[in-house]
Design a protein that fits this description.
Blueprint: E1 3-7, H1 34-51, E2 54-57, E3 71-74, H2 81-89, E4 96-99, E5 118-120, H3 128-140, E6 145-147, H4 169-174, E7 178-186, E8 195-204, H5 212-234, E9 240-244
Parallel strand pairs: 1-9, 2-8, 3-6, 3-7, 4-5, 4-6
Antiparallel strand pairs: 7-8
Helix pairs in contact: 1-2
């Protein structure tokens, strides 16, 4: 039987993150390192295809857009796997993933995540212009950028939680395509963690006839709707049963 996990809101963390101290400004400016990335991608093969039993379906939808910048939007259900899976989808260019600043303090790997392709969101608004320039440079270089719009990791969650409209600021501003990357779960063997099948869909383009806010919301709704369809159809096993807590 699935383990029941109660929650109070969709913004609740189900995986404990390190307390966020004021980060060293130098930590936010560490650059991508091809050697570190190559090591991370090799680890991604072992983790995702080996330990987590990930299989990817419909990957061909990305083929016409390789060498161009685009955004991948995924449901956030694997604390480790979500950081590494995009590396297996990128061909010939590094995959970049937008990450919370708290990840810099994860033991052992935290100091290396930026060198391995993570784009760490700065902790205050003063750093956002430079961050947006970094994301833009990645897209212009033809590198895919992955975003997890649910923001919080809920391990093995089979639902698609609400998305923040703000997470779709980037493709609307840059007028580039987005793709849905939906992790779904199926039973493997009794007493074991489920296998993971990831479905790719798209491209989804921002509507240039709408205002910026409207285009962001329209794109968020479209991507969410597609992911919800995939999850409803192909997530056939709940390893953890998430239930909203009922308060009197």
């Amino acid at each position: 039987m699935a383990r029941v996990q109660y929650f109070d809101s969709y913004t609740q963390d189900m995986v404990a993150l390190p307390p966020v101290d004021t980060p060293d400004p130098r930590a936010l400016s560490r650059e991508y390192n091809p050697t570190v990335y190559a090591a991370a991608k090799a680890f991604a093969e072992l983790l995702c295809r080996g330990a987590l039993h990930v299989r990817v379906q419909n990957e061909q939808v990305l083929d016409p857009y390789r060498g161009q910048g685009y955004f991948l939007y995924g449901n956030h259900t694997q604390p480790m796997g979500d950081a590494f899976l995009p590396m297996l989808l990128a061909k010939g260019v590094p995959a970049k993933t937008i990450a919370n600043v708290a990840n810099l303090q994860v033991p052992i790997i935290g100091p290396y995540i930026q060198a391995g392709g993570a784009l760490v969101v700065p902790p205050d608004l003063h750093g956002m212009p430079a961050f947006l320039q970094t994301v833009t440079a990645c897209i212009q270089a033809g590198e895919p950028v992955t975003i997890y719009p649910e923001a919080h990791v809920w391990p093995y969650d089979t639902q698609i939680r609400p998305f923040s409209r703000a997470a779709f600021h980037y493709p609307v501003t840059l007028q580039v395509p987005s793709f849905a990357m939906t992790s779904t779960y199926q039973a493997r063997r009794l007493g074991t963690k489920p296998k993971i099948t990831v479905y790719l869909d798209g491209p989804f383009w921002p509507d240039s006839t709408l205002s910026t806010r409207q285009a962001q919301q329209q794109l968020a709704d479209t991507v969410h709707g597609q992911m919800a369809k995939r999850a409803a159809q192909f997530s056939t096993y709940a390893y953890i049963d998430y239930r909203k807590r009922v308060t009197s």
